[in-house]
């Protein structure tokens, strides 16, 4: 002890070699250089347009005003669209949860190789254009579509079901597109749960169901929350599916914006709508970050 | 420690509770064409601490998992106080288990972790509080109730895992390499502590490890496993002094092995190696003149430099390995074979240098006749 005590604190009297400092700075600069292309791209194509959007939304006929925001809150039809948008997003999230949780659980119990193989199946929809998939669903779900004909011929129904141009069509189409966003984070978190914990619970007297409810389920929640967050936020901004498969009561906020820009040429109002959507999304993110931490979304550790 | 004395009632209750007699009868597990556990048979007395010792893949963990109920045996029985539990699901077995990486529930505090088995057993809130406090004193972690596992050191997590496995007073405790993740000093400390707790609670314990020192330190008896089978069961001393096979003699401690034919001579037996070297070996009923046998000879039983003993050979020191409390010498004998000699590091043994010619000697009884190979020939 005496020997170490007499030694001066490291760094107290030792000056950094200037050559070393130069080397260090150069290495830092090189690392920053790697970041630069992405940073520039984001600034030009993302940050700048969003700022423009914000600015546009607070101008009314050349003067700064909150007129457009007032309209959103006061005009009945816009509020209704807002409500529809949130309701559909929530419904889609709930359905994805119900379908995705068991699937993710099943995948997480498989051996790594089998799980990877099946994950590819989950991901295949990812690699197909939304438009193509939406039209495919239209073929399946329309009045004379595959599903209706099949049900009719089996004698299960007497007349075709309405599954298009209404809520059912929108939900089917959106769930199909968004399901992987639920399954992937849930799977990543579940995969990280030590199966010995489940064994330990059973060893300590828990039935398999109790072990699941008290140990596995709580530990899988970060993944579920992450998946739900992704699905919900992506669903809020959906356009193609509700436009093609929805009825008159399934108009979502993105359609409203498109309408304002293309037919009404009311750019500031569309900008205000976009800003509201952005603000809501950010608020949800902040709440999520407070509760669980954003690093969990793409499968950080579970501890 | 003071903690234990504060709860004499608890200590008394723990001592009165008897561990169960545990019998494994012909326990076998076959995966495809791999026999992971091959007719494992063990009779474990109430309160006994028995270790399954063996290299990885020897079947020790499979055997433990069958007792815990996580692996279904292909054949065999597991009797706890005479009752076969082989077909019961894990949660009905009432057996405590400490997992390799502790398997503490990360989303629960220490108290909640320990209370888990009691909640499953529907103890009252007051009983649970009391039991958690007592068992935390037993493992010397009083006051840690509200911590989370990630806030604890490895050794502390280990104690919590032990507390959780013991709090519901199981008649049988299983431990799967529980000290593997700890550093050497802490491991040695925990070995003694686990042993003391096991003794004070009188819980029948099966302990799995590949660390022979750990097995020797802690166990009442050790079952050495190899290739799914039990090679030998015995007290630490029996296993070290009288290994039945080369595998056991090699796995527990170090051994020199000599093989050759048995020849009689003036009332004694000699082993004659292919090189023509004659070594006296103990007379035994199991050995006939003409038999091909192997003997194991512990390095520390060979004396260096002193000419007395039933067997004396000369050789040249080729290598000296200083390991602190002892020094090992690799000695090449005149006819070409090698012996490893281990001596306490005293001044007189440390004067030897590489290349020195030395005399080695040992007694007849120091050579132990063992089965060849890894037991297939038995």
From TrEMBL, chain B:
Gene3D superfamilies: 2.40.50.100, Nucleic acid-binding proteins, P-loop containing nucleotide triphosphate hydrolases. It is an enzyme of class 7 (translocase). GO terms for cellular component: ATP-binding cassette (ABC) transporter complex. Its EC number is 7.6.2.11. It catalyses: ATP + H2O + polyamine-[polyamine-binding protein]Side 1 = ADP + phosphate + polyamineSide 2 + [polyamine-binding protein]Side 1. Residues 22-252 form the ABC transporter domain. Keywords: ATP-binding, Cell membrane, Membrane, Nucleotide-binding, Translocase, Transport. It comes from the Bacteria. Signal peptide: none annotated. One of its GO terms (molecular function) is ATP binding. One of its GO terms (biological process) is quaternary ammonium group transport. It holds the Pfam family TOBE_2. Part of the ABC transporter complex PotABCD involved in spermidine/putrescine import. Responsible for energy coupling to the transport system. Belongs to the ABC transporter superfamily. Spermidine/putrescine importer (TC 3.A.1.11.1) family. The complex is composed of two ATP-binding proteins (PotA), two transmembrane proteins (PotB and PotC) and a solute-binding protein (PotD). This is Spermidine/putrescine import ATP-binding protein PotA. It comes from Thermalbibacter longus.
């Amino acid at each position: 002890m005496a020997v170490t005590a007499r030694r001066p604190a490291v760094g107290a009297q030792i000056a950094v070699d200037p050559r070393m400092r130069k080397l260090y700075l150069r290495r830092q600069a090189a690392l920053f250089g790697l970041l630069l292309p992405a940073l520039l791209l984001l600034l030009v194509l993302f940050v700048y347009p969003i700022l423009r959007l914000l600015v546009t939304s607070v101008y009314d006929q050349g003067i700064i005003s909150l007129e457009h925001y007032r309209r959103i809150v006061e005009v009945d039809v816009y509020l209704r669209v807002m409500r529809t948008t949130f309701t559909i997003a929530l419904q889609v999230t709930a359905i994805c949860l119900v379908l995705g949780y068991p699937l993710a659980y099943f995948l997480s119990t498989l051996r790594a190789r089998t799980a990877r193989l099946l994950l590819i199946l989950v991901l295949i929809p990812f690699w197909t254009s939304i438009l193509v998939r939406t039209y495919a669903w239209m073929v399946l779900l329309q009045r004379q579509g595959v599903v209706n004909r099949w049900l009719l011929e089996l004698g299960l129904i007497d007349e075709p079901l309405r599954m298009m141009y209404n809520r059912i069509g929108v939900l089917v189409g959106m769930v199909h597109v968004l399901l992987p966003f639920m399954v992937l984070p849930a799977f990543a978190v579940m995969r990280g749960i030590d199966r010995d914990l489940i064994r330990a619970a059973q060893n300590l007297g828990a039935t398999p169901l109790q072990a699941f409810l008290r140990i596995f389920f709580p530990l899988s929640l970060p993944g579920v929350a992450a998946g739900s967050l992704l699905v919900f936020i992506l669903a809020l901004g959906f356009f193609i599916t509700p436009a093609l498969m929805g009825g008159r009561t399934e108009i979502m906020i993105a359609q409203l914006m498109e309408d304002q820009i293309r037919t009404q040429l009311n750019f500031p109002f569309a900008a205000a709508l976009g800003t509201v959507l952005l603000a809501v999304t950010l608020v949800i993110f902040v709440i999520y970050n407070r509760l669980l931490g954003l690093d969990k979304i793409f499968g950080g550790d579970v501890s | 420690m003071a903690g234990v004395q504060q709860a004499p009632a608890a200590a008394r209750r723990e001592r009165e509770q008897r561990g169960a007699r545990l019998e494994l009868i012909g326990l076998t597990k076959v995966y495809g064409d791999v026999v992971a556990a091959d007719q494992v048979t063990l009779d474990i007395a109430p309160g006994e601490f028995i270790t399954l010792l063996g290299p990885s893949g020897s079947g020790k963990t499979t055997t433990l998992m069958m007792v815990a109920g996580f692996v279904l045996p292909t054949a065999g029985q597991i009797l706890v106080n005479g009752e076969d539990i082989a077909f019961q699901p894990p949660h009905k077995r009432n057996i405590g288990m400490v997992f390799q990486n502790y398997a503490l529930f990360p989303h629960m505090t220490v108290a909640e972790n320990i209370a888990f088995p009691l909640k499953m057993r529907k103890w009252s809130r007051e009983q649970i509080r009391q039991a958690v406090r007592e068992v935390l004193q037993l493992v010397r972690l009083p006051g840690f109730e509200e911590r989370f596992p990630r806030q604890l050191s490895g050794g502390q997590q280990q104690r919590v895992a032990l507390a959780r496995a013991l709090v519901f007073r199981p008649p049988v405790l299983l431990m799967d390499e529980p000290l593997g993740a700890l550093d050497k000093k802490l491991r040695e400390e925990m070995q003694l502590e686990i042993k003391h707790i096991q003794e004070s609670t009188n819980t029948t314990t099966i302990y799995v490890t590949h660390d022979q020192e750990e097995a020797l330190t802690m166990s009442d008896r050790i079952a050495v496993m190899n290739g799914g089978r039990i090679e030998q069961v015995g007290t630490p001393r029996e296993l070290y002094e009288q290994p039945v096979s080369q595998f056991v003699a090699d796995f527990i401690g170090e051994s020199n092995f000599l093989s050759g034919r048995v020849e009689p001579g003036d009332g004694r037996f000699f082993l004659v190696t292919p090189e023509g070297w004659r070594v006296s070996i103990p007379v035994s009923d199991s050995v006939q003149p003409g038999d091909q046998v192997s003997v194991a000879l512990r390095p520390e039983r060979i004396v260096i430099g002193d000419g007395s003993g039933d067997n004396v050979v000369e050789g040249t020191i080729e290598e000296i390995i200083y390991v602190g409390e002892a020094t090992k010498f690799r000695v090449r004998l005149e006819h070409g074979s090698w012996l490893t000699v281990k001596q306490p590091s005293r001044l007189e043994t440390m004067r030897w240098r590489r290349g020195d010619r030395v005399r080695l000697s040992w007694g007849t009884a120091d050579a132990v006749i063992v089965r060849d190979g890894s037991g297939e020939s038995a």
